[in-house]
């Protein structure tokens, strides 16, 4: 269940699913944007907000990892140099910093087992997803727009957690945050077909209504197909609740971005 709370004096959404877990995870609102998007007038505020988030998390600014999202299905892992093992260089972001930004270009999902690293991704209608492995102490942040959803990015993130850290699906808790709802997300036939191809036949009727599609529910079904069953899904539609969230569709492309943020509490690995 999601509820509004305050983080550094700004409204955020948190899930009761993680209340007793050693992890900080929340979805921001319009009060705490971390990317200006088309709103270049907010650039100064964005930089202050990044500092504010890091102050609240008690980490240096360089430990806030924000990838350059491109609506891809690319998943990268943030690890320390001594933990790289046989990982491919294009799949991992090496720590400690300074990290060349090119290491997380073209990336729409990040995973880490580092307790002093905060992952943050940005949204304005697309689906924000946080994953947490309560056994292995692994966190992930995922940006699932319709392209990423059609490409099953959330399943690829789960697979990466399994491959890199031996995660078990039954240990993973998933939070699906505020995103555009079926009520407001009308798409063309080609887009609909691509999205529906990512779920089972019996699920198709549940996620679409004429030419409207429920991206959050599609991602939930994809998680269930991977064996992830503990899923908290936020019912808020970013387009309907534009006073609380940014909406690319509602604001006709002239908007900043709200965000997800997730970090293992220090000392918990």
User: What pattern of helices and strands is seen along the backbone?
Assistant: EEEHEEEEEEEHHEHHEEHEE
- Number of structural domains: 1
CATH class: Alpha Beta
Shape: globular
Number of strands: 15
- Strand residue content: 25-35%
Class from helix and strand fractions: alpha/beta
Spatial separation of the terminal alpha carbons: 25 Å
Instruction: Give the radius of gyration.
Output: 17 Å
Q: Kindly state the mean pLDDT as a whole number?
A: 92
CATH third-tier fold name: CNF1/YfiH-like putative cysteine hydrolases
The largest beta-sheet arranges its strands as: 6-5-7-10-9-11-14
Kindly state the percentage of residues in helix: 10-25%
Question: What does the largest sheet look like?
Answer: 7 strands, mixed
Number of helices: 6
Which architecture name does CATH use? 4-Layer Sandwich
Short account of what is shown:
This protein is of the alpha/beta class.
Structure characterization notes:
With 269 residues, this protein is an alpha/beta fold. It has a single domain (2-264), classed as CNF1/YfiH-like putative cysteine hydrolases. Helices cover 22% and strands 28% of the residues. The chain has 6 helices and 15 strands. The protein has a 7-stranded mixed sheet with strand order 6-5-7-10-9-11-14. It is globular, with a radius of gyration of 17 Å.
């Amino acid at each position: 269940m999601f509820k509004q709370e305050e983080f550094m004096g700004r409204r955020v959404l948190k899930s009761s699913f993680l209340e007793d877990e050693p992890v900080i995870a929340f979805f921001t609102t319009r009060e705490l944007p971390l990317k200006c998007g088309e709103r270049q007038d907010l650039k100064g505020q964005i930089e202050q907000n990044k500092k504010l988030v890091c102050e609240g998390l008690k980490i240096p600014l360089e430990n806030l990892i924000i990838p350059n999202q491109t609506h891809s299905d690319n998943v990268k892992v943030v690890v320390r140099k001594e933990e790289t093992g046989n990982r491919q260089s294009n799949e991992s972001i090496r720590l400690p910093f300074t990290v060349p930004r090119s290491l997380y270009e073209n990336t729409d999902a990040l995973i880490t087992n580092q307790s002093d690293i905060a992952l943050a991704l940005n949204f304005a209608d697309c689906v924000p997803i946080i994953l947490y492995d309560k056994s292995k102490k692994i966190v992930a942040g995922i940006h699932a727009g319709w392209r990423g959803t059609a490409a099953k990015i959330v399943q690829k993130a789960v697979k990466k957690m399994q491959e890199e850290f031996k995660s078990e699906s039954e240990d993973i808790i998933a939070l699906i945050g505020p995103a555009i709802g079926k009520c407001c997300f009308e798409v063309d036939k080609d887009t609909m077909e691509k999205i529906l191809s990512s779920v089972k036949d019996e699920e198709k009727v549940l996620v679409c209504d004429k030419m409207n599609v429920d991206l959050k529910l599609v991602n939930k079904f994809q998680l269930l197909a991977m064996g992830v069953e503990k899923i908290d899904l936020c019912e808020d539609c970013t387009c309907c609740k534009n006073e609380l969230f940014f909406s690319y569709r509602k604001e006709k492309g002239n908007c900043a971005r709200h965000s997800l943020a997730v970090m293992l509490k220090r000392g918990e690995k």
